[in-house]
């Protein structure tokens, strides 16, 4: 999810600049994963799951996931998740932003729920390479990112030093189905 989000940031910035808009929303892909619980480690709140393609993955259940104590070997977990990114080219003098919020909503019955996380930062364009073409950003707490950009013409409409607010939202709907 994070990798897809990062690619969307650079592509979206170029689109924003190319359209002359101040704000652009980049809708991420929605994914659904179903997996079977194969192992549970209570101390670290980690769960080993086997996905439908036969591969294994390690998941971490935060304290807010109250159904963790109900998990059993053989249970089926279905997670549907999505993300989107909103980019806003800042006007000169606007204050920088660095904020984060999360929420967990438990569904009736305790075997399902929704978790969401939203983060907004102000990033500065630190480099543009028209030959590649690519763009680099820096932000709060040492955050740095660079990526190729598909629309070279749009990339030419932003400059080093421009500031961009990047807001990304990630949400997951989780359901638990008892094993047989």
Structure at a glance:
With 180 residues, the chain is mainly beta.
List keywords for this structure.
180 residues; 2 helices; mainly beta; 53% strand; 9-stranded antiparallel beta sheet; single chain
Blueprint (SSEs and pairs):
Elements: H1 2-19, E1 23-41, E2 46-51, E3 56-60, E4 76-89, E5 98-106, E6 112-129, E7 134-138, E8 144-148, H2 152-155, E9 163-177
Antiparallel strand pairs: 1-2, 1-4, 2-3, 4-9, 5-6, 6-7, 6-9, 7-8
The shape, in one word, is elongated
The string of secondary-structure elements, in order, is HEEEEEEEEHE
* Terminal residue distance: 31 Å
* Global mean pLDDT: 80
Largest β-sheet summary: 9 strands, antiparallel
Please tally the helical runs, counting DSSP H or I stretches of 4 or more residues.
2
| Alpha-beta classification | mainly beta
Number of strands: 9
Cα radius of gyration in angstroms: 20 Å
Low-confidence blocks of residues: 1-21
Number of domains: 1
Helix content: 10-25%
Beta-strand portion reads over 45%
Structure characterization notes:
Strands 1, 2, 3, 4, 5, 6, 7, 8 and 9 form a 9-stranded antiparallel sheet that branches. Residues about 1-20 have low confidence and may be disordered. The chain is built from 2 helices and 9 strands, in the order H-E-E-E-E-E-E-E-E-H-E. It has helices at about 1-20, 150-155, and strands spanning about 25-40, 45-50, 55-60, 75-90, 100-105, 110-130, 135-140, 145-150, 165-175.
